[in-house]
Amino acid sequence: MDSHRQHRSSARRAYLAAGAATAAATCVAGAQLSFTSAVAAPRAVSPASASFLSGSIASSAPQQTSGISTATGAVAAVVLATGAAAARRNRGRAAACQRHAEEGERVYSIADQVARFERAKKEDNRRYLDIGSVYDGSFLKGKRLFITGGNRGLGLLTVQQAVKDGAKCVVACRGSSKELDALGDDVQVITGVDVQSTESVKKMAEQIEGGPLDYAINNAGYFMEAAETLSSLDDKEELKQIDICALGPLRVTSALHGAGLLKGGKVIIITSQAGSVEWRFTQNAGEGGDYGHHMSRAACNIAGALMSEELKGEGIPITMLHPGFNRTDMTAKYSDIWDKEGAVPPEEGAMRVLYEVGNVSMETTGKCINCEDGLQIPW
Q1: Looking at domain 113-370, which of 3.10.20.340, 3.40.50.720, 3.40.50.1370, 3.40.50.300 is its CATH number?
Q2: Full-prediction pTM beyond 0.85?
């Protein structure tokens, strides 16, 4: 605290000695320091730092502007207000980070998949290790749930579980399957849907029966089979992955919103931790690779973040979910590490997804959540 007081005192003396220009620079630097401090240490902010971040610029403004001419003071006041606004914007984040640090609350998931799985076993984390023991899908009873790519894989199992929980589902897909058709009247199946086509998804939205949706899950995805390195790039496959995994959810959400089907609803995007830039330095350390896959998921996540801001005023949350490591056809290329990294059967993966779907709210909008442990994945 003493060092912070000395810093503010020095800033005031410099201001009075050098005039309004120095004051402006001091205030801008203070605002930048507040922002940088809040972002650089999001998980552990000391009480002293939090106090400094919480408005020292605003509280010292009257002393700083004393003795300045009216015109110069007006300019300084604008700069001071800007600095104070920056401090206020970060006050909530700093306070939250301080609370997490003091309470030992975990905010972010662990990038190292093996370490994450081992920690769950050490702590006997039933939510991670045995989702069936904590899952309660009663929140879905009587709700309308829409999902793309629900004809097979994780999407199909999500639909089957949702129907079991009492939901009325709308499935958009290229073609149906016997397992999907077996669900009967509880599911409206819309076939011929191509998420790579704006015209196709608009036509899809026009066919949805029953009015607004409670949950809209963008699940359709694509992962090229071949491994990709700098010596084996496939730009056509890269663009296909981006088109399906990033533009797909954007097109579908736009079509549903334009048709008035998201009023009072919640939007979920099934994405991947593969889109986290920070985690690449752990999971892809020293090797890189799979460029199209990672680029498509990073693009997907930024689209979700932007949509969350655009729809915030309407009270429609957009939350990204990493489904976790599931033993599906899409991850079969990694079957040699399924056991080591705790990959689960898709039936459990579906419950993990729906468990987090039940937690989606305006508090989670714009965030990417790991369905394995319910913690955030950093960008």
Answers
A1: 3.40.50.720
A2: no
